[in-house]
Please model this.
Amino acid sequence: MELKDVAFSFLDFPKLELDTGKLIAFFDKYKTTAATYKSTETWQIMTIEAGEWYRKVPIGLPVYDKEARQEFPDLMDLIYSLPVKLERVQIWENIIPVGAHQDTFHPALNCPWPGPKMYRLMLVDPECPTFYMSPNSEHPPEEQRIYPKFDQVDTNVFCFTNEDVFHGSAMRTPGTRKLLIQLAGHLDVEKHIEILQRSVVKYKDHVITVDQLKSMKQ
Ligand SMILES: [Fe+2]
Model:
């Protein structure tokens, strides 16, 4: 298996010991509702770090980096240790199901390397998994979805490819919460490949390949 054929992999970074209740309260204090993916009120979002351009964009959300560093230093240290020159870091929670799609709104990770390079951190995951990869867009049937098992690994960090295949988010069980971090920035491809190389070995039982997804397509 070549690295460029990986559709999804967990990444070898230390697992965070997060106070989930405190994190949810922090998010609820600052979150705002945003519309993406062909719908209104799809997500709730909070920006916790941003580069200079984002801070100057008139429609940019407030950046709560000082608050995040004060309340969750371990989380922010982990984010700063990733091989990404950060342009925008946000906590996201979907409030309706998000159909399978490819991301178009943070082109900074569109570097020429063809493999999985969209970085995310799962912070709070519901009992019922929601993030999935699929060979099809929109709302693929369950047999065309693979849900990575976030509760079976010792990391919060994962990456996936934005090419050839799709990702989406099913709705969580009512009453549960799900928070993840989305990063936009400039990827250090050399460092990323080094991390991915050891990660696909460490998490080999959880790696999803592009071919595996395409073989599910009818
Ligand atoms: Fe997405």
